[in-house]
Automatic annotation (TrEMBL):
Domain of life: Bacteria
InterPro entries referenced in this protein's UniProt entry, alphabetically: LysR_HTH_N, PBP_domain, WH-like_DNA-bd_sf, WH_DNA-bd_sf
Ranges where the PBP domain occurs: 136-325
Species of origin: Noviherbaspirillum album
Descriptive protein name: Substrate-binding domain-containing protein
The HTH lysR-type domain, residue ranges: 25-82
Family matches, as SUPFAM superfamilies: Periplasmic binding protein-like II (SSF53850), Winged helix' DNA-binding domain (SSF46785)
């Protein structure tokens, strides 16, 4: 049994030959119709020697005769050769319509690559419900194509620094004081003079509970109740960092919470776990709770930032992205997401202003010496 491998090529002019051509079957079809190796070679604009050598090579590879030779008679395909040619023609008849559709789709996509007015923005981002809407809006309004991959906040910034994306998305709580987990985590990743922040959205994070809050959950300390099942986000996510920081502030040990080590990859999957009864409470954004018809207890406000390297800030794609974020149309598009706000969206923010633990020493000016 032979395996099939299909490839494709580029051409700057229309391709008149049918697709899925193979040189062996061109030879077999020509010999079948002409009854002569010499005439088949002439039809294909090949030398007799080339055709003869190719046939022998394929007979050896396939382990069977392809051509029957009898003195004074027309050359004809062997029984195996006839079946092989028939199988190829039948298979092509079945798949060519699908292949034509595939080629048309690929040609449309590749045409985008040759259009100087379009741009691709590779982005790693922490999960957010507004990002798919932004992706669609960018494509429609500005031919900006957001190549979006969801990762944890820390992984996203690390990928940006390694050059794997043009833009990274992460979020931090408003509690950014010195000595917090936020400082310890992000100060290692974000470097003044290297990274630039762009405001995206503000969000409300809190406890996601079942509709009507049947377990009467009011605050973080309730999570210590042994009968409650908690569902968390994965390590490395910004949301996991935030709940850990909140617990540290309240002197609550993570080990005292039933289910703290369980993990879901997105806000929506946390909400789904609560809605399905797999958990009694989770930690996530208000919009995810609302989408699943769940209750929500707000705990913190956070800011979601886009970050890029300093040299990328003036690239056409990033400039256009910032312009779209400042538009009234974009703000209306996410107006229905509870807990979101778009204040200062699109504005560039210095690390020193956004993260108060960054401080820059100023050089002391030499003392002035008064003239005698």
């Amino acid at each position: 049994m032979f395996n099939i491998k299909v490839g494709y090529t580029f051409s700057d002019s229309p391709i008149n030959k049918p697709h899925l051509e193979h040189p062996l079957f061109e030879l077999l079809a020509a010999i079948h119709s002409t009854g002569s190796v010499a005439q088949a070679a002439e039809c294909l604009d090949l030398s007799y020697r080339h055709v003869w050598g190719s046939l022998k090579k394929w007979e050896e590879a396939l382990g069977s005769e392809l051509i029957l030779w009898e003195r004074g008679k027309r050359a004809r395909l062997s029984g195996f050769g006839e079946k092989l040619l028939y199988a190829e023609q039948r298979a092509k008849t079945r798949v060519l319509p699908q292949l034509e559709n595939l080629i048309s789709e690929m040609e449309r996509e590749f045409a985008f690559a040759f259009d100087p007015t379009t741009h691709v923005v590779p982005m790693y981002a922490s999960h957010d419900m507004a990002l798919p809407r932004l992706k669609e809006y960018m494509a429609q309004e500005a031919r900006l194509h957001l190549d979006l991959k969801f990762r944890g906040s820390m992984d996203c910034i690390a990928a940006l620094t390694r050059g794997e994306c043009l833009l990274a998305g992460f979020h931090v709580s408003e509690d950014r004081a010195k000595g917090t987990l936020t400082q310890k985590t992000f100060k290692k990743l974000l470097k003044p003079g290297k990274h630039k922040l762009i405001n995206f959205v503000g969000r409300q994070q809190g406890l996601i509970v079942r509709s009507g809050n049947p377990k009467n959950i009011r605050n973080l300390r309730d999570l210590k109740r042994p009968e409650l099942r908690f569902v968390n986000r994965e390590p490395g996510s910004g949301t996991r960092l935030e709940i850990e920081q909140l617990l540290a502030t309240e002197n609550i040990a993570a080990a005292s919470i039933n289910g703290f080590d369980s993990a879901e990859p997105t806000h929506l999957s946390v909400a789904a776990a609560v809605a399905s009864g797999q958990a009694d409470v989770g930690f996530g954004i208000q919009a995810a709770a609302a989408k699943s018809g769940l209750g929500f207890i707000p705990l913190i406000r956070e800011q979601y930032y886009f970050v890029c390297l300093k040299e990328s800030l003036d690239e056409a794609a990033i400039v256009k992205l910032r312009e779209l974020l400042r538009s009234k149309e974009w703000r209306l598009l996410i107006n229905d997401l509870p807990g979101y706000d778009t204040q200062l969206a699109g504005d560039v923010v210095s690390l020193r202003k956004a993260m108060p633990w960054y401080s820059f020493k100023t050089e002391k000016q030499p003392a002035m010496v008064s003239p005698e």
